[in-house]
Specification:
This protein is of the alpha+beta class. 28% of the residues lie in helices and 34% in strands. The chain has an 8-stranded antiparallel beta sheet. Strand 6 and strand 7 form a beta hairpin. The longest helix has 16 residues. It is globular. It starts with a helix and ends with a strand.
Amino acid sequence: MKKTIPTLIVLLLISWYSYGQRSVDQEFTGKCAVKEVTIAKGLNSEVQNMMMVMKNGFTDSQFIFGSDGKFKIQLKENAPSMMKEMTSFLNGRNWVYDRDKKELEVGNNELLMFVEQKDGKYYFEFSDTPITLEMDKS
């Protein structure tokens, strides 16, 4: 009995610590369709033009978060070839969600998105690009 209580305490602490850690999260497992793409204001024309290409590429795309921890992005058929090249290396990479930081990471920090849920919708904001995606989770 004396060994049982410390063992239970250790198991409880491990499970509590693990709860907030990075993992494949059922909340995101499945398909997320891009419903709207928003570009930050005040960009110079060169960056604005690049963001318009990305907006066109992400519009009507799907992000697939596999229950096996694998990620896939499906762009629309007529997406710009530059977008297809930029995103193809992400397919098959592992994904994790950090609940504490509200971050979705694909690969080894190859794609990092901050997640916000508001009014029943999900918003993915890229860490290194002035674009936010409104997502519809199915």
